[in-house]
From TrEMBL:
<keyword id="KW-0804">Transcription</keyword>
<dbReference type="InterPro" id="IPR036271">
    <property type="entry name" value="Tet_transcr_reg_TetR-rel_C_sf"/>
</dbReference>
<dbReference type="Pfam" id="PF13305">
    <property type="entry name" value="TetR_C_33"/>
</dbReference>
<feature type="domain" description="HTH-type transcriptional regulator MT1864/Rv1816-like C-terminal">
    <location>
        <begin position="88"/>
        <end position="190"/>
    </location>
</feature>
<protein>
    <submittedName>
        <fullName>TetR/AcrR family transcriptional regulator</fullName>
    </submittedName>
</protein>
<dbReference type="InterPro" id="IPR025996">
    <property type="entry name" value="MT1864/Rv1816-like_C"/>
</dbReference>
<keyword id="KW-0805">Transcription regulation</keyword>
<dbReference type="InterPro" id="IPR009057">
    <property type="entry name" value="Homeodomain-like_sf"/>
</dbReference>
């Protein structure tokens, strides 16, 4: 066990976050516990509670880092193209690839349940909004005359589909006798949805 003042608060915080991320490379989040994290970095559970406020908020900080990484990778993927439709498809494929490569961290974003008296902090909500805003920005470029409500709804519906394919892919629950190409499914979803969305406007 490390002595109480072996590391600064910032160092202990980083140690805890990195330990959880490393653990999730090969193990389920259900196998984590506050005591296990504390033991893994050589500090007491109380030290972690003092730093993060609760075990739930510790995991929420891990989720924040995951969202930051995902957001940056999606942004980078979209810069390889200049056509909004292609940029959107690149971001969707990046989302799928991230889920496949970092499955347990990706799953923790959606599986984490805070205590009833714990609210999602602004810094976490801002990250969630930022991710969706990337999609909304591209949709606005594709259909500049669309209302804010239409863009919001389209972004959420489309990404729900991308997320659904990603979830079924990581869980291996597509229930198909043939090995389906998940990337092709995502690309087909984006292409067909955009085609229907744009043609619906033209037919009015």
């Amino acid at each position: 066990m490390a002595r109480r003042f072996d590391h600064s608060s910032e160092e202990i915080t980083d140690m805890a976050l990195q330990w959880v991320k490393h653990h999730l490379q090969s193990d389920l989040s259900d196998s984590l516990s506050l005591r296990k994290v504390a033991k893994g970095i050589g500090y007491s559970p109380g030290t972690l509670i003092n730093l993060f406020g609760s075990y739930g908020y510790l995991l929420l900080r891990v989720n924040a880092d995951t969202l930051d990484e995902l957001s940056e990778q999606m942004k980078a993927a979209s810069t390889n193209d200049t056509v909004p439709e292609q940029q959107l498809n690149a971001m969707a494929l990046c989302y799928l690839e991230f889920a496949m490569a970092h499955t347990q961290r990706w799953r923790l974003i959606f599986e984490l349940k805070l205590a009833t008296d714990e609210d999602i902090p602004d810094w976490q909500q801002q990250r969630i909004d930022q991710l969706l805003n990337q999609v909304k920005g591209l949709l606005t470029g594709i259909k500049p005359d669309a209302s804010n409500r239409e863009i919001e709804q389209t972004a959420r519906i489309m990404w729900a589909g991308v997320h659904g394919i990603s979830f079924l892919a990581v869980e291996d629950k597509l229930f198909s006798p043939a090995k389906l190409n998940h990337s092709e499914m995502v690309t087909t979803l984006i292409r067909n949805y955009l085609t229907g969305w744009l043609s619906d406007t033209e037919s009015r």
